[in-house]
Design brief:
membrane; binds 2-acetamido-2-deoxy-beta-D-glucopyranose; transmembrane helix; 7-stranded antiparallel beta sheet; 431 residues; Dipeptidyl peptidase 4-like isoform X2
Amino acid sequence: MLFSRMTQERTVYPEEQESFLGPPSTTPAKLATRKALLVTLGVIVLIAAITAAITVPLFLLYGGTPDNRPSYTFDDMFNQKFSYKGFSARWISDEDYLYRDEDGAVLTKNVRTNMTTVLMDNTTFTEYDAFDYRVSPDMQYVLLSYNYRKVFRHSFTANCLIYDVQGSVVTAWIPYDDVQYAAWAPVGHKLVFVYKNNLYLKTDFSGNDSQPITTDGMEGVIFNGVPDWVYEEEVFSTDHTIWWSSDGNLLAFAKFNDTQVPIMSFSHYGETQYPRIMDIHYPKAGRTNPTVSLHMVDTTNPAFPTQEVPAPAGFSEIYLYIVSWASNSQLYTNWIPRPQNTSIVNICDVTQTPISCTMIDYQESTTGWIGVFGPSFPMFIEGGSKYLIIQPHEEGSGAGKFRHLCLRTITQGAEATREWLTTGQLKSPVS
Ligand SMILES: *[C@@H]1O[C@H](CO)[C@@H](O)[C@H](O)[C@H]1NC(C)=O
Ligand SMILES: *[C@@H]1O[C@H](CO)[C@@H](O)[C@H](O)[C@H]1NC(C)=O
Ligand SMILES: *[C@@H]1O[C@H](CO)[C@@H](O)[C@H](O)[C@H]1NC(C)=O
Ligand SMILES: *[C@@H]1O[C@H](CO)[C@@H](O)[C@H](O)[C@H]1NC(C)=O
Ligand SMILES: *[C@@H]1O[C@H](CO)[C@@H](O)[C@H](O)[C@H]1NC(C)=O
């Protein structure tokens, strides 16, 4: 119906043109003028027709009433008013996951039955304006974090409280501002946290007390369980250097000592109008690096006996790159001497005192760094006796090495055997 109205209006115009132009003439000059006039008028008519074609339907649609719809403002570009809604689920078993509903309550959902159970309503979340929650593996407690304050790329500090699921109450706090890290052990409800570069363990939630695991932490200088700037940014890309054995008994953690690392001062442009001067231990080329050591603590013993996990001997400067539990008694450690063109992997038997390690893999690069950004991560299978890893494979006939999947089997006191699961020349060789 709209369309027919439009065509009708368009056909009205030519008739009006005729009357405006007057009677036809016969001289060539007059003919040319008339032609030009006709073309000009044709263009005008076309523009008018297009304008009508647009305005008429708009008028009919909105009836000329004012448009009361909210407009998209400059601030809306940044305030996420029109952004999509995310959904975040955390698996807690093969069939159940944790999520927060629209009201902000924490629920568990079983994917087989669709049954949901409210673990915690939104009251405490709202009261403290919490930004994160972590449910203990035994589902008895929820760790809530609030007062987020960013530090570097991955690190931040926060305040933390513990909510008792059974009693639906806040039962304890970590009574410090600026907690650097807090997380549950993989089983039960053991909480480990880092404050002022020291590690603490909390197992009793009837009050605020906790037990220190380390005491030598010093802000900006000695770091326990959290990386210094170099390791956070350049090696681990995380805010913590803590690795629990899967039974939740043993805890491996890295300690960094930045005493000898020169200090760099720079302006930090934060929330305030004037920048703040920040000092960080920052090793430029050829200057002293932070030193790293790896330690293991038995959290089942209240005295927290701690042992050092030895680094490969004979290197004045070495980086710790990867720590992973192969089993509850064996720790996989990957170290890289400072030139970063060799990589050493040890398997350490943590049941021995002192802890003893054997080298199971040694890699060399003749063209540059080990790996792409570092060595690959192992994926342990069969109780820790074998692992899958991506490593360079020599393709022969001068083709070079290519990254392939390898199954490695740990044998007592020797290099882990290799079984290449993929081979072949890929796009480009690696070092
Ligand atoms: C909290 O949940 C209730 C429903 O249980 C809801 O009415 C309320 O809006 C929620 N509060 C916030 C701040 O989301
Ligand atoms: C669970 O919910 C999904 C999606 O609504 C539905 O397709 C499925 O049939 C439900 N399963 C059961 C057991 O009710
Ligand atoms: C526990 O810590 C919180 C937060 O710092 C504090 O408000 C509360 O009084 C403390 N409780 C006890 C029993 O000390
Ligand atoms: C850190 O290293 C310095 C020497 O650079 C040493 O004197 C100090 O004892 C070390 N601190 C710790 C806690 O290891
Ligand atoms: C690794 O780099 C260092 C320093 O450049 C060099 O001395 C050494 O020979 C290199 N090792 C290998 C295996 O290329």
